[in-house]
Write a structure and sequence with these properties.
The chain has 999 residues and is α+β, with helices and mostly antiparallel strands. The protein is 24% helix and 27% strand. Strands 19, 20, 21, 22, 23, 28, 31, 34 and 35 form a nine-stranded antiparallel beta sheet that branches. A nine-stranded antiparallel beta sheet has the order 24-25-26-27-38-33-32-29-30. Helix 1 crosses helix 5.
Length: 999
C-alpha cells in the first residue's frame, strides 16, 4: 500500500513539474498506421453557455429537473481520468466555463492541469469565450470574443493553450466571414456539425464532406483559405455508442462468462458504422465524435467503454482487419489528413440558409428576440468606447475587473443560443442581466477616463472643488424610446458626444425634454447651435414600461465630431448669453395631410409620400426610383410537433402559412413636422404598429423608425412582422447581403451554388441573415436597406426587399427549447420592439459602407447635470473638445481596435473596410503611419500578431492544402512593417501589440 501511494505521488508530481518540456500540439498526437483506416475517436463535451438553463445553472448543475447538466463536474471528472492514463485525450471548447472552473482550483490542481495541457492530453479547440453564432453576429464582436478567450488561455498555458482548429459543431449554419477570420487567427482547419440536409446528402454521395473553403477569394486570397470538414453525425456519438450517464445505450460487456456478453456484436456494429462513414470521405483517416451535450460528468463510464472498444477493434488487426482506433483530437485528425496529401474541392459561398428537413428552414432565429439583438449591438458599441477611453486616458496597468466584465459579457452574448434568441425566456432575462452588469461596470471606466481627459485647465479658482464634485458622467440607455432622466429633470446640463470612429462624423443629437420651451445649446466656443423641437410620437409615449414625461425631443447637429474624441455641448432652458435674446430656431409645421407629402428639396434627397404616410417615390441625387413600403405579417403555422411532420414557426425556424403576408399598414394617423434640421412624418397604423420616416437636412439616407408590439395574439395566431420595400429596380432574382458586417455575398432566389435545390418552402428557403445591409441593383440603380441589428431578409420578387423585424409565436418548433417564442415584459404584456432602417439608393457603394460603420460604431452621449455651473465656468475649467488622433487616417481605413493589453501595452487593429472593385475611389491600398497617429501617446514599438493577438505573425506556420480548382491563389498580403508605415490592402486587418510613450 505504501509503495502504491509513493508511486501515485511520483506520477502526480511529475505531471505537476512546470519545467517538463511541452509536447503539446501535433507533437502529442498518437501515431497512425500506414495502410490502415485510422479512426480518430475524439472525446468531447458540448457545453452551451446558456440555453435551457442560465450560464451559472449549467456550470453548477442547478435545476437538474430541466436538464441534468453541471460543467464543474465534467471538468473535475475528466481531469481525474486524464491524470491516470497518458493514452487518453480530451478537448475543451468554451473558455467562459473553463475560466470559471479554473478560478476555483487550488495550486496543486492547476499544476496538474498545466501538465496535461503541456502533454497534449487536454487540448483547447476553438478557444473563444463561447461557441458563437455565425448568422447574427458582427465580425467585430466575433474577433473580440475569440481574442478574449485566446488571451485567458495564453496567459494561463502559453503556447500549449493556443488552439489550432475551429470547432463550430452546433451553430445553425456557417458564414464565410468566420472562415476568413479563423484563417487569420492562424487556424489550420475548421470542423462543424450542421449543414443543409440536401447539401449534406450531395456531399455524402460525392465524397465532398471535406473542402478548402475560400473565406475571401476576391480580397485576401489564399491567406483566408481554410480546410473545412463536416462531421458525419453532427457531433454526437454513433447510434448506440453513447456511454455517458445521460445515455441509455448498453455498455460493452467483454466478459464471455457473463450472460450480458455483447462485445462481438458491439464491435461488428461499430465496424459497419465506420465503413458507412468512410464512404463519404477521401482520406484514410476519419473522425468520430465520442460525446454530446454536457457529457462526461462521470468521465469514467465513457473512458472505460472506449478503452474496451479500442482494444477489441484493434485486436482484429491480427486477423487482417485494416481498422485502427486511437484516442485523438481534431488537431491530430487534421494533421493526419494533411499528411495524406490529397486534393480537395473548394467552396466560395456560405452555408446559409440551413434546413434540417424540407419544411424546417432555420431562418426564424435571424430575427428572434429583436430587442436582445439590439442590446448586444449597443453593448459592442459601448465596449469599443470603453476600451478606447481606457487606452487614451492611461488608466494604469490593464487588469481592471470593471473593463473585463463587459469583455466577458459580450463574449457570452455571441453564443449560438444567446444573440440568436433561441434560449428559454428566463435565460434571455439572465443574458440581459449579464450584459447590463457589464455595461454598468464599464461606466466606471468611462467616468474615470473622461474625468482624466476633461481635466480642469486651471487650478486657481475658488470654484474648482465644487466643479469637481459636480462632474459626474451618466449615460441614458433608453434614448431609443425617448427617455432620459438627466435631460428631463435638469434645467441645464452638459452633453458630451464621443465619436469612436477614426474619422470625423456628424451625429444628430435627440434629447427628450418635458417642456415646449426655448433651449440654448452652446458649442465649446460659446456659439449657439441651431436647434429644433419635435413632438414625441404618441406611439412612443405608450410603450409599456416607458417611465418618462417627455413630450418633445430637442434636436441639434453635432457636426464633424473629432475622431476618437468628443465635443461637449452646454444645454440650458430659457437661457441667455451675453445679454442677447434667445433666437429660437425650432420652427415647425404640423398638419394633417390630405395630399401627397414631400420631404426634402429635390436637390440631394427628397421623398414623396401619399396621404397615408407611405412612401411612393424617392430621389437620391440625380436618380429617382419608385419606392413604396408596407408593414405586413406572416401567420405562424400551428404544426404537428409530436410527429415532426409539420413544423411550426418557432424560435429557430420560420414557416409561414399562408404563403402571402397580410398587410398591416393601410390607412393611418399621419402627422408631419418640419424644421431646419429634420423633417419627419409620424404614422400610427394601429395601437401596436407605427413608424416615423425621417430625412435629415445634410444626409444621404432616409431613416425609417418602426415600433412593433405588443403583437396581439387574442386571435390565437402567432405573427411574424415584416417591412417590405418595393422599387422599380430590375433585380432579376438577385440580391446581396453582408457576411457578418464585412464582405458582400451574392444571393440568387431559389438557387444554391453547390447543389440542385428542391425547395418546399419558397419564403423561408430564400431568407438570409442580414447583419448590417441588404441590396438590390440593376444597370441604372442600386437600393439598399441597412439595419440597426441582425434581421432575416430576402428579395422574394424583383425590385423588392423585405426584412423581418419582430416575431411572437404560440407554438414550439420542437428543436429543443421547449417553449413558444412568446416574449412578454412588464407584467405579461407582449414585448415592444423599436428599431430603424436606413435607406440609400442611386449613390456610390461607399455611401452604404460608411453609413454601416457609422451605425455599428455610433457616437455615444454622456450627460453631466450642471445645477450650479454656468457655461462660462464650465468652459473655463473643463476641456470641451478632444481628439485621440493626432495624425490622419485614410478614408478607407478604420481603427478597428484600440484597447489596453498586458501591463501598459496596447492592442491596435487597423482595417481596410473596402473590397476589391467595390468603389472607384476607396477600393485601393492604404498606408497608415503609426508613429504620429495618436495625440495621447507616441508608439515606440509595434509587434505584429495574428488576428487573435496570441501569436506573433512571423511565427505563424499554417498547414498547406491542395485543392481541385482553377482558383488563382493570391499571395498573402505583405506583412512588412517599415518605419512604422502600415500598408493595408482591401479587406485586410492588421493587428499589433504596441508599446507607447505617453505625451
Amino acid at each position: 500500500m505504501i509503495k502504491l501511494l509513493i508511486l501515485i505521488c511520483v506520477v502526480s508530481s511529475s505531471l505537476a513539474r512546470p519545467e517538463t518540456k511541452p509536447t503539446c500540439g501535433y507533437q502529442s498526437c498518437h501515431p497512425t498506421k500506414k495502410g490502415m483506416l485510422n479512426v480518430h475517436l475524439v472525446p468531447h463535451t458540448h457545453d452551451d453557455v446558456g440555453w435551457l438553463k442560465t450560464l451559472d445553472e449549467y456550470y453548477y448543475g442547478s435545476k437538474p429537473g430541466i436538464q441534468r447538466a453541471g460543467v464543474q463536474y465534467i471538468l473535475d471528472s475528466v481531469v481525474e481520468e486524464l491524470l491516470h492514463d497518458p493514452n487518453k485525450r480530451f478537448i475543451y471548447v468554451e473558455t467562459a466555463f473553463f475560466w470559471k472552473w479554473w478560478q476555483e482550483q487550488d495550486d496543486h490542481k492547476r499544476h496538474q492541469v498545466k501538465a496535461l495541457v503541456n502533454a497534449g492530453r487536454l487540448e483547447f479547440i476553438g478557444g473563444a469565450w463561447a461557441m458563437n453564432d455565425e448568422a447574427t453576429t458582427n465580425y467585430q464582436s466575433t474577433i473580440d470574443q475569440f481574442t478574449w478567450g485566446f488571451r485567458k488561455l495564453d496567459d494561463t498555458f502559453g503556447a500549449c493553450g493556443r488552439p489550432k482548429i475551429g470547432w463550430q459543431i452546433d451553430p445553425f449554419g456557417h458564414s464565410r466571414e468566420l472562415a476568413s477570420l479563423m484563417a487569420q487567427f492562424g487556424f489550420d482547419g475548421l470542423l462543424f456539425g450542421r449543414l443543409d440536409y440536401q447539401d449534406k446528402a450531395t456531399r455524402v454521395l460525392n465524397k465532398h464532406m471535406e473542402m478548402v473553403w475560400q473565406g475571401s477569394p476576391t480580397n485576401l486570397g489564399s491567406s483566408a483559405d481554410l480546410f473545412t470538414s463536416v462531421l458525419f453525425n453532427t457531433y454526437s456519438a454513433p447510434p448506440s455508442f453513447c456511454f455517458d450517464i445521460l445515455c441509455n445505450d448498453e455498455p460493452i460487456v467483454d466478459n464471455k462468462k457473463s450472460p450480458k456478453y455483447n462485445a462481438d456484436e458491439r464491435v461488428q456494429t461499430f465496424l459497419k458504422y465506420i465503413e458507412r462513414q468512410h464512404k463519404s470521405y477521401t482520406s484514410n483517416n476519419i473522425l468520430i465524435t465520442m460525446g454530446d451535450d454536457f457529457n462526461y460528468q462521470s468521465a469514467r463510464s465513457w473512458y472505460k467503454n472506449l478503452d474496451k472498444l479500442i482494444r477489441l477493434v484493434n485486436e482484429k488487426q491480427s486477423n487482417g482487419s485494416n481498422v485502427n482506433l486511437l484516442y485523438s483530437t481534431p488537431s491530430c485528425y487534421v494533421k493526419a489528413v494533411n499528411e495524406d496529401n490529397l486534393s480537395f474541392t473548394t467552396k466560395k459561398d456560405d452555408f446559409f440558409p440551413y434546413a434540417s428537413d424540407p419544411n424546417s428552414f432555420w431562418t426564424g432565429y435571424f430575427t428572434s428576440r429583436p430587442t436582445i439583438k439590439y442590446f448586444e449591438r449597443k453593448g459592442n458599441n459601448f465596449l469599443q468606447i470603453c476600451k478606447q477611453l481606457y487606452a487614451l486616458a492611461d488608466l494604469g496597468p490593464e487588469d481592471r475587473g470593471d473593463l473585463n466584465a463587459l469583455r466577458s459579457a459580450m463574449g457570452v452574448m455571441q453564443h449560438h443560443d444567446a444573440i440568436t434568441g433561441t434560449e428559454k425566456q428566463l435565460v434571455a432575462f439572465d443574458y440581459a442581466r449579464i450584459l447590463s452588469q457589464g455595461m454598468a461596470e464599464c461606466e466606471i471606466v468611462v467616468d474615470a477616463a473622461l474625468r482624466k481627459i476633461i481635466a480642469p485647465k486651471t487650478a486657481d479658482t475658488e470654484d474648482q472643488p465644487k466643479l469637481d464634485d459636480e462632474f459626474k458622467t451618466v449615460t441614458c440607455p433608453l434614448l431609443n424610446v425617448s427617455q432620459c432622466a438627466t435631460t428631463e429633470e435638469n434645467k441645464s446640463f452638459v452633453v458630451t458626444v464621443y465619436n469612436p470612429l477614426s474619422k470625423p462624423v456628424t451625429h444628430y443629437v435627440r434629447l427628450p425634454v418635458i417642456d415646449n420651451a426655448n433651449y440654448t445649446v452652446l458649442c465649446p466656443m460659446g456659439k449657439k447651435q441651431v436647434t429644433q423641437l419635435v413632438p414625441i410620437s404618441d406611439a412612443v409615449k405608450r410603450i409599456p414600461g416607458r417611465a418618462s414625461k417627455a413630450e418633445f425631443e430637442l434636436v441639434f447637429r453635432a457636426k464633424n465630431l473629432p475622431p476618437l474624441g468628443f465635443r461637449s455641448y452646454y444645454v440650458s432652458q430659457d437661457a441667455k448669453l451675453d445679454g442677447e435674446e434667445h433666437d429660437y430656431t425650432g420652427g415647425q409645421v404640423r398638419r394633417e395631410p390630405a395630399e401627397n407629402i414631400v420631404l426634402g428639396d429635390h436637390m440631394s434627397l427628397s421623398l414623396t409620400l401619399n396621404e397615408n404616410g407611405e412612401l411612393s417615390s424617392a430621389t437620391f441625387g440625380e436618380k429617382t426610383i419608385k419606392l413604396s413600403q408596407g408593414i405586413y405579417y406572416y401567420s405562424g403555422a400551428a404544426g404537428n410537433n409530436e410527429e415532426f411532420k409539420n413544423r411550426s414557426s418557432g424560435a429557430y425556424i420560420f414557416r409561414p402559412t399562408p404563403a402571402q403576408p397580410i398587410l398591416l399598414s393601410a390607412k393611418g394617423e399621419v402627422k408631419q413636422y418640419k424644421g431646419p434640421i429634420v423633417e419627419e412624418v409620424q404614422v400610427i397604423y394601429s395601437n401596436w404598429v407605427s413608424q416615423t420616416i425621417r430625412r435629415y437636412t445634410d444626409e444621404e439616407y432616409v431613416e425609417v423608425n418602426w415600433i412593433v408590439g405588443p403583437i396581439p395574439i387574442d386571435d390565437n395566431v402567432g405573427k411574424e412582422i415584416i417591412i417590405r420595400y418595393e422599387s422599380d429596380i430590375k433585380s432579376n432574382g438577385v440580391f446581396y447581403t453582408d457576411s457578418n458586417g464585412r464582405e458582400t455575398l451574392k444571393r440568387v432566389r431559389d438557387f444554391r451554388p453547390t447543389w440542385k435545390l428542391e425547395l418546399a418552402e419558397k419564403i423561408s428557403g430564400n431568407y438570409y441573415p442580414v447583419t448590417s445591409r441588404i441590396s438590390i441593383k440593376d444597370e441604372k440603380n442600386q437600393f439598399s436597406v441597412l439595419t440597426d441589428r441582425a434581421q432575416g431578409g430576402s428579395s422574394l420578387n424583383d425590385g423588392q426587399i423585405e426584412l423581418m423585424v419582430h416575431r411572437r409565436l404560440l407554438h414550439d418548433d420542437a428543436f429543443g427549447v421547449g417553449e413558444a417564442l412568446n416574449e412578454t415584459a412588464y407584467g405579461g404584456v407582449g414585448l415592444v420592439a423599436v428599431g430603424s432602417h436606413y435607406l440609400t439608393a442611386g449613390g456610390r457603394p461607399a455611401t452604404d459602407k460608411f453609413l454601416a460603420h457609422r451605425k455599428l460604431m455610433d457616437s455615444w452621449m454622456f450627460f453631466t447635470p450642471t445645477p450650479t455651473t454656468t457655461f462660462q465656468q464650465w468652459q473655463k475649467n473643463y476641456k470641451m473638445e478632444y481628439s485621440g488622433l493626432k495624425g490622419t487616417v485614410p478614408s478607407n481605413v478604420k481603427i478597428l481596435t484600440l484597447e489596453p493589453w498586458k501591463g501598459r501595452s496596447l492592442l491596435l487593429r487597423l482595417e481596410n473596410i473596402f473590397e476589391v472593385g467595390e468603389d472607384e475611389l476607396y477600393s485601393k491600398e492604404a498606408i497608415v503611419n503609426l508613429q504620429d497617429l495618436f495625440s495621447a501617446f507616441k508608439i515606440v514599438s509595434a509587434q505584429e500578431t495574428v488576428l487573435g493577438a496570441n501569436l506573433l505573425l512571423k511565427d505563424m506556420q499554417r498547414l498547406k492544402w491542395n485543392s481541385e480548382s482553377n482558383y488563382i491563389k493570391k499571395q498573402g498580403p505583405s506583412q512588412t512593417l517599415t518605419d512604422f508605415n502600415v500598408t493595408l490592402k482591401p479587406m485586410q486587418i492588421r493587428t499589433f501589440i504596441i508599446e507607447v510613450q505617453r505625451i
